[in-house]
């Protein structure tokens, strides 16, 4: 699958699979194409050539159905300014055809674990960056999607919240949810993920189980592997 913006090739012949029920880290330097890949997965963008499927459905042509399979946390979640966190969750539940009371019964314990429950009745626009990320995760998980797609999920989270966030993601994966998340934090991927995709300048340079990738490239750490596969010449 290839995605161009005018003359710019953002993703070039990228072909990948995310193993079901696993946590997969999407890594790449700034501008590598990670957010573009997520926007293609969500049907926000259309591939310039090739295909991208989610659960056997075309990510663009069948994007309404695909959105039922995916929970997406954008890097910078944006909310309606006049709605509280709770109202946003209830609205989202309705859009997914869920009973809002049942949905809140399932999501409120998670809000409590993330220390967000006491703020749910405040306007989401007034939330701090980390609080917006937490609400974004709850919105992504609300309809119990098969695939969680998280764009730099721990950006803006404090240390304790990062641990709580990852605990929840690991529980989702244990329950069968597939997780794909982008980050620049190699140690987080090493700790959390079984698999990784590495993109460099729009090209997929590695994909597979972390242990296999490190053995294949004869490196001890993911960071060394990343630096090896994404080395670029200095700018003049
Ligand atoms: N709408 C667009 N129009 C033109 N170019 C774009 C557009 N969206 C992305 N690009 C370009 O595509 C490339 C990939 O961008 P993308 O945002 O996917 O990178 P990224 O890996 O998410 O980067 P970062 O780690 O900095 O968030 C960049 O060169 C970017 O400038």
From TrEMBL:
Domain of life the protein comes from: Bacteria
Pfam families (alphabetical): ABC_tran
CDD domains given in the database record: ABC_DR_subfamily_A (cd03230)
Keyword tRNA-binding: no
Gene3D superfamilies, per database record: P-loop containing nucleotide triphosphate hydrolases
Keywords on record: ATP-binding, Nucleotide-binding, Transport
Domain ABC transporter: 2-226
A molecular function (GO) term: ATP binding
Name of the featured protein: ABC transporter ATP-binding protein
Naturally occurring in which organism (per UniProt): Novosphingobium organovorum
């Amino acid at each position: 699958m290839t995605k161009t913006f005018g003359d710019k090739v953002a993703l070039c012949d990228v072909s990948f699979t995310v193993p079901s029920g696993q946590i997969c880290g999407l890594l790449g330097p700034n501008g590598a194409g990670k957010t573009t890949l997520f926007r293609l997965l969500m049907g926000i963008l259309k591939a310039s050539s090739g295909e991208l499927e989610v659960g056997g459905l075309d990510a663009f042509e069948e994007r309404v159905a695909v959105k039922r399979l995916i929970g997406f946390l954008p890097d910078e979640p944006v909310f309606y300014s006049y709605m509280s966190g709770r109202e946003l969750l209830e609205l989202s539940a309705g859009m997914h055809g869920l009973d809002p009371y049942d949905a809140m019964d399932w999501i409120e314990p998670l809000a409590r674990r993330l220390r967000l429950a006491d703020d749910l009745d405040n306007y989401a626009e007034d939330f701090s960056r980390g609080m917006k990320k937490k609400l974004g995760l709850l919105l992504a998980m609300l309809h119990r999607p098969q695939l969680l797609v998280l764009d730099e999920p721990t950006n803006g989270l404090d240390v304790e919240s990062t641990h709580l966030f990852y605990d929840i993601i690991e529980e989702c994966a244990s329950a069968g949810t597939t997780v794909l998340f982008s980050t620049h934090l190699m140690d987080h991927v090493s700790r959390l993920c079984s698999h990784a995709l590495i993109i460099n300048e729009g090209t997929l340079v590695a994909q597979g189980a972390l242990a296999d990738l490190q053995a294949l490239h004869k490196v001890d750490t993911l960071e060394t592997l990343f630096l090896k596969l994404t080395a670029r010449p200095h700018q003049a």
